[in-house]
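DATA SHEET
Item: assembly model
Revision: 1
Owner: S.N.
Input lines:
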Amino acid sequence: SAVISQKPSRDICQRGTSLTIQCQVDSQVTMMFWYRQQPGQSLTLIATANQGSEATYESGFVIDKFPISRPNLTFSTLTVSNMSPEDSSIYLCSVQVTTDTQYFGPGTRLTVL
Amino acid sequence: SQKIEQNSEALNIQEGKTATLTCNYTNYSPAYLQWYRQDPGRGPVFLLLIRENEKEKRKERLKVTFDTTLKQSLFHITASQPADSATYLCALDAANDYKLSFGAGTTVTVRA
């Protein structure tokens, strides 16, 4: 199994500002992902956080808006840049520990005013 | 286009009954399908994975079936309890690369 923590757990931000979300795992993992869950919606994959190289973004998500760092196998950050109210969501990181199981963090609830 | 559809947004059942949730998908050929539980304010928790060559899988009071011909998975909670109240999500890995696509979820409420 894997224990994942995220910081902050929630934040309220002003439009036009940026927020960096941290994801820490208690063991080394190769595959780490960032998802977004908009209010009342299901999860949508933003990107794969690659250790030692640039993140791989899914359609509709770009590096300028969601820069991601992955300095090592236990840690990643996601920044939500130049925020607007439409960015209000829960942001979750996840890790693939075995071939069968993906573990999710508790999420960061972001509200943009 | 690819779609994952889960049955009705909410399911209300009496304690002790069986809850049956449906996940239908189109334009996917997944090697496996997963079910997760999500409680309010929390991240999803992995419950079960079923592979394309498996018809049925069980874990305690949970049972999952997978019909690749119908492109459908059924998720059953038997002898349901109020503690089973949560939102249940099905997820597919379309390209076998661990990138998951999720259904919208079904919220189950078990009445005592």
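QC remark: The mean pLDDT of chain A is 95.
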